[in-house]
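Many introductory courses stop at the sequence. We go one step further.
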Amino acid sequence: MNVSIIGTGYVGLVTGGCLAEKGHQVTCVDIDPERVAALNRAESPIFEAGLDELLRKHVGRSLRATTDLPTAVSGSELTLIAVGTPFDGQTIDLSAVMAASRQIGSALRNKAAYHVVVVKSTVVPGTTDLHVIPALEAAAGKKAGVDFGVGMNPEFLSEGEAIHDFMFPDRIVLGGNDERTLDTLEELYRPFAAAPRIRTNTRTAELIKYASNALLANLVSFSNEIANLCSALGGTDVVDVMRGVHLSQYFGNHNAEGLPPIVSFLRAGCGFGGSCLPKDVKALIAHGQKAGLPMSLLESVIEVNQEQPRRVVALLEKHWADLTGIRVAVLGLAFKPGTNDVRESPAFPILRELLKRGAVLKVFDPVAMDEARRVLRDDGITYCDGLSAALLDIDALIVVTPWPEFRDVPALLRGRHPAPVFVDVRRTFERGSVERYEGIGV
């Protein structure tokens, strides 16, 4: 199948590479000529495991990039809209989605063959019907569902594992308001025969994505609330508590392969971040309020999440009533391992809380240093070139992102006098591995 993808960000690139791997002919479209040129050299602008290999394998064969949207649409049977939808606190920004819709519509005006346009960007329920379709129809001078098809196909990709998630999906949601559109989407995903399908309308498909992310955010904040209770009660450890929860039969059968993936969200830590969960939960709250429905549960989820960075700093304040001049290393700036994405990273509010209290800060991340410098413009932070430099001359350290590169940190600290306070906010280290251990939920 000939497929065009509008947007070469995280979702667009992963989707393009994986569809090419499955035998489709893919054209990725972006407005940035430098980005397009880099992609045509098989150079990825993002860090994602396995993506570089896919680009090297398929660029120049079944995958190419261009700035020419009309030609890409004209030469394809289906177009995926995979542009960003940032949230400003009140509503998601549809400007990129609408610009793409108008340009696609213009390209369809002179195209005789039936074409299907599919929204893959995360948009609130009703967006495709109320905004995208009218824009397409006005620009094309044609009727959706008659002259061309319009669908909604949300992505369920976890950064750092996105290639695997796309190639081995746990579900494929096909949204469309007519059978021809749904059948075309079925053809797109025919190589993924083992994945369960759900065929539904566009609004339901849009809400499935938000409901899925809202559930994961609920699990994280629930775990952190239990962790905070453990800290208040004393004599309990949230790691042991949640281990007992994880073994419940309601999470499925447990075998030699370990626990089901869902329990990874039922672990205490410093809160959720990234490009999806914070934005999507807040957007769903705002969308519900506009519909006259207060979203009290989700508001509490966000409130718990926003409080976690202060609880991390409070672990240091158990040792120093005044943090002025205390030398602290913060390890990990990406919001999770396996990606250089620093959007909504929990490390940033932790750093800013420490700066307010006068701490002297050093930071290190194996892959996200450049991204962090662009986003984190606060004075008083030293960016280290390596782990050894970050661990030199410190009173305390906080491991925010549990990169594999940090596994040996306890051994590197052994024998230091006085021993630095070791704050394990993701609970990935053994409590006895360091002399002065602090962790969420202990």
